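Task card 7
Instruction: Convert sequence to C-alpha cells.
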Amino acid sequence: MKDILNGHLQAVDLKKYYHQGSIIKNTDELCDEIFKIILNRKEISDEPLNARVFINGGTRDDFGSKLSNNPPRNDESLEDWLKRITLQDSFCAVLNGINGWSEFISNFVNRSFNIPWVAQFGIPSKGVDVYCFMGRYSITPFGIHLDKEHTFLYHLGPGNKKAWVWDPDEIDIKPLIKSDSFNLNETLQHAKHIVLKPGDALFIPQNWYHVLENPTFSLTLGVAPYEMRKAEVVTSIINNFLNEGAKDNDFYTFNESDDEHRALTKEFLPETLTKKNIQQLIPEGVNDIKHNLQSNFHFKYPSPLRKISNKKYQYFGDLVIGKDDGEKIRLHCRGKTILMKSQFTKQIIELKSIMESPDFEYFHDCSVKKSSFTFIMEQLICLGVLV
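Output:
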C-alpha cells in the first residue's frame, strides 16, 4: 500500500498544492468506522466526542453535546441522524481527534501518514490531528479562509466535494475578501477549482486560502500536522512543570510584605524548580513532549479515558518509559504522563517487554481484589495502552 501522505508522488512539496485521484481504497471501511465511533461512544468512554456543528454560517456549541449523547437509531444513516439532531437539511459537523476512538483509524493513519511524515519532516511539536467533516452545505460555514497548518483532505464520499484554492504566489486575495469571507464573485475567477471524488486526496499548504462545498451529503477525512511556536514550547513546558502534582485548589494569594519575593520563591514555585535553571528545564520538558507524542503515535489528541470491563485485552501501545530521577519514574501512555515510584521501574520494563510480544493477552476481572499489578493494568486500560 502506498502511503497516503505522498500518494502517487515520490515526496510532497509543502509549498505546492496537489490533487490526486484514487488514493484511499477503503473509503467504505473508513466511513463505517466513523459511524461506529459515533454509535458506540458511550461504550468506549464517558468523555464526550470533540464535536462542533456549523449551521447557517455559525457555530452551534449546543449541538456538540447532542452529537455525543444521542447516537443514531438502528434504522438511521449518518445523514438521517444529523438531520434529526440539527433539524436542518444543510449542516456541517466536525469530529476532531477521531484516532483516539478507533484503533483501526489510528493504525491506518499512523502507518500511511505519520510514519512517512516523521521520516521526511521530523516530529510535529503539537502532533497530528485526524478529523472528519460530515454534512451537506453550499459552502464552508466560515467562508474563504486559510489555516496555519498544512491540510490533507481525503474524500470518503458517497457524494463528490468541490474545492477552490488560491496560490499566494499568483494572487493575494486578502484585499478582495476584506471583512467578507463569502466574497465569491471577485475571487473564484482566480482560484484553482477541484472536484474531489470518493478516494481522492487534496493537499492545501499552510496559509493558502481555500473554500469547500458539499453539494450532496458526504464525509471527508482530514489530517493536519500541527507545530508550536518557540514561545508556545517554553510556556507549555513551564506550565506542565508548575502543574505537576498540583491540587485543584492549589491557588496562591500575594501578601503585601517585604518578604514577597522570598515568598514567591518558596511558596509559589515548586521546590524542585528553584533548584533548576531554564537550561535544565527546557531539555527535560522537550523530552516529555517528544515521549508523549511518541507514545501516542505522534497524534495531537490522546485517547479518551476508556471504560474498564471484564474482558480480554491486548497491547495497543504505546507505553514509553521516560525519566527516572530515583524517586519517581515518568510513564508516557497514549499522549498522557503518569508518575510512579522508582521502585516499580524494573517491573514496568519487564511488563512492557511481555506486553509487546505478539501472543500477549490479558483478561481483566473487575471483581478481583486490587493489587499493585491490577492497579497498573487498570491504568493502562484506562489510558488506552491496552484495548
